[in-house]
Amino acid sequence: MSDQSDSKLAERNIPGMNRNARFAEVQRAENVGSTLKRIALYFAHEKIMVICMLAVVIFGTVCGVYAPSLQSRAIDMIAGTVTGSFAKTLIFMLVVYLLYSGSQLLQGLLSAKISQRIVKRMREELFGKIVDLPVRYLDTHSHGDVMSRMTNDIENISTTVSQSLPSLFSGVLTIIGTVAIMLWYCPQLALLSFATVLLTLLATKILSGKVRKFSRKRQMLLGQLNGTVEEMVSGYHTVVAYNHQDMTAEEFCNTADSLTKAGIKTDIFSGVMGPIMNCIGNIGFVIIAAFGGYFSINGLISVGVISAFIVYAKQFSRPINEIAQIYGQLQTAIAGAERVFTVLNEVNEDKTGEALAEEKSAAVTFQNVWFAYEPEHPVIRDFTLTVPSGKKVALVGATGSGKTTIVNLLMRFYDIDGGEIFINKQNIRDVSRGSLRQNVAIVLQDTVLFSNTVRNNLKYGNENAGEEQIQLAVEISRCKDMIDFLPQGYDTVLTGSGETISQGQRQLLAIARAFVADPKILILDEATSNVDTRTEKAIQDAMQLVMKNRTSIVIAHRLSTIRDSDLIVVMDHGAMVESGTHEELLAERGKYYELYMTQYAGFAT
């Protein structure tokens, strides 16, 4: 045992922790106290297993501290300074070491089980919270950051619970026990042995600072390198089209060279940790051997005590080094837990309210509606509109005029700041979001399909839809031939959100999905933007049948697709500037006329 370095012992007692990761950049929590209290609540759910693990740690620590004293007694028996049964002492020492090893194994199993249970509970709570968060939260927070909290932060917590906390607890107990027994054997030699601890702490502080500095730089460069690769792979067609292969390769090589230099420096400083700790440990052995021999000659201690002191000195420095190493990991885990709790503290989307009245008609009325994503910057200004039941109303206007925002307000993705929105005579503020959205189907410009079968994707808005209803929706949306062409037809699994089929085909499936939902109100937000003109015309003809007796709101940039609308509303800067039929608006020669003539002349709007 005395031949092993502190660093190797530390890594052996903290599985999975590589020497560079120990000195990675430390994230710090802003409110450590409250975060630790909340983490403790998760441990409270596993209190029986936690108590068992603590008992095992205490038992193992006692065995580890007691074993060297048995070794000391055995050596003194050989030297003839003490009497007793040498064989029994050896057997007892073997049993103690076996118990110590068994407790270490059991400690690892219990800590792993506790960590996985805690992380499972935390992960379920976080995912449940994300599902219930308002749309505003996910619109205003980076999706990558939200994913990082679900994956990286929780994984850090799991690693800390399963590895660092047991090591920290057993390390503190080992230090206390070792110091006590060394002082009991020989206070003078114990104090001399403790002098090497200062050298250990000083070396750890200097080297960890250097490694952390270059590790931080290496992580930054690794992020840049990954970003370069991701951009090149995702935008490969663009890179090749503009003949930027050499430039991209040069950029990659420059970043890779810098990463290599930072990695070499990190490995150098982290690599010398073991030899330096060995050197300091050997200095401690020299001190113990020299002064221990002197004390032994003068009759203060026996030869066996010197042997025990060598083991105790190693036991004493090892947990100190471990605690220094896991300190950063503990800080990072607490910071990660704080980030997770920040999401859990968010207010859920309000799902209370009454059910939408069961009526065949579904007239939608916007009355003096005001809304702003940010205060003092209104996006919708005093908007008033009535969409008669069973009629088709189109919203047109330049990008940023507020068309999609109107749809978001109707779906209650956001609540209005002023005015009222009614379905029939029922204020949607009084209607639960769940009931409201069960009666409204929406097809967005950015199509979202899920990694599931085609059939389950079509039934996403209506799980009780029958086969006839699905077949009718597929026929109307003109995607029957496409589905029949797939390897397993309706049972074909769409991987990667439907990346194996074209954008236009995904759009057709999204339209069919809306038809299967059989809503009272149908919203089409640039629903045919990704299909060719011929398919678009076929869909438009079929949609006339589907939208018959169904309230429909259509957002379109291609004005040719909404010429047959019962009412066309022209929006500009969040307000209605014109309304009427296609012919009426052309006759007025206003904003709609300008948009239409611009498209007719062949220019994009």
UniProtKB/TrEMBL annotation:
The lineage of its organism: Bacteria, Bacillati, Bacillota, Clostridia, Eubacteriales. SUPFAM superfamilies: ABC transporter transmembrane region, P-loop containing nucleoside triphosphate hydrolases. The chain crosses the membrane at residues 48-69, 89-112, 165-185, 191-208, 268-288, 294-313. It comes from Bianquea renquensis. InterPro entries: AAA+_ATPase (IPR003593), ABC1_TM_dom (IPR011527), ABC1_TM_sf (IPR036640), ABC_transporter-like_ATP-bd (IPR003439), ABC_transporter-like_CS (IPR017871), P-loop_NTPase (IPR027417), Type_1_exporter (IPR039421). It is found in: Cell membrane. PANTHER family: ATP-BINDING CASSETTE SUB-FAMILY B MEMBER 10, MITOCHONDRIAL, ATP-DEPENDENT PERMEASE MDL1, MITOCHONDRIAL. It holds the Pfam family ABC_membrane. It is a multi-pass membrane protein. Keywords: ATP-binding, Cell membrane, Membrane, Nucleotide-binding, Transmembrane, Transmembrane helix, Transport. Residues 53-332 form the ABC transmembrane type-1 domain. This is ABC transporter ATP-binding protein. GO terms for molecular function: ABC-type oligopeptide transporter activity; ATP binding; ATP hydrolysis activity. Signal peptide: none annotated. Residues 364-598 form the ABC transporter domain. One of its GO terms (cellular component) is plasma membrane. CDD domains: ABC_6TM_Tm288_like, ABCC_Glucan_exporter_like. The keyword Cell inner membrane does not apply.
